[in-house]
Specification:
Layout lengths: L1 H7 L50 H16 L6
Length: 80
C-alpha cells in the first residue's frame, strides 16, 4: 500500500483542472483514479449553491448500443 500511495502522489502523474459553472467531466472509472480538492462554499457568487451530480453507465451496454446503431447506419436504416 505504501508503494501504491507513493505512485499516486507523483506530480508527473497528476492532472488538475478547476471547473467553471456549467462544466461537465466524464471519467472511465476503470482507467482513471479521480478525486477533488476541498473547497470553500463562500467562494461562489452569493446565492449560488454547489451542485454535483453523478451517474453510472454500464460501459458494455453503451458500446453494444453504439455497435448496433453503427450497423444500422452503414445499412442506411433509420436510427432509433
Amino acid at each position: 500500500m505504501r508503494e501504491f500511495e507513493t505512485e499516486l502522489e507523483r506530480e508527473e502523474g497528476r492532472f488538475e483542472l478547476k471547473l467553471e459553472k456549467g462544466d461537465a467531466v466524464i471519467f472511465d472509472n476503470r482507467r482513471v483514479l479521480h478525486a477533488r480538492r476541498e473547497f470553500e462554499e463562500t467562494e461562489g457568487k452569493e446565492g449560488e449553491e454547489r451542485w454535483l451530480k453523478g451517474c453510472y453507465v454500464d460501459g458494455d451496454a453503451g458500446w453494444d448500443r453504439w455497435r448496433a446503431l453503427e450497423e444500422k447506419r452503414t445499412r442506411g436504416e433509420e436510427l432509433d
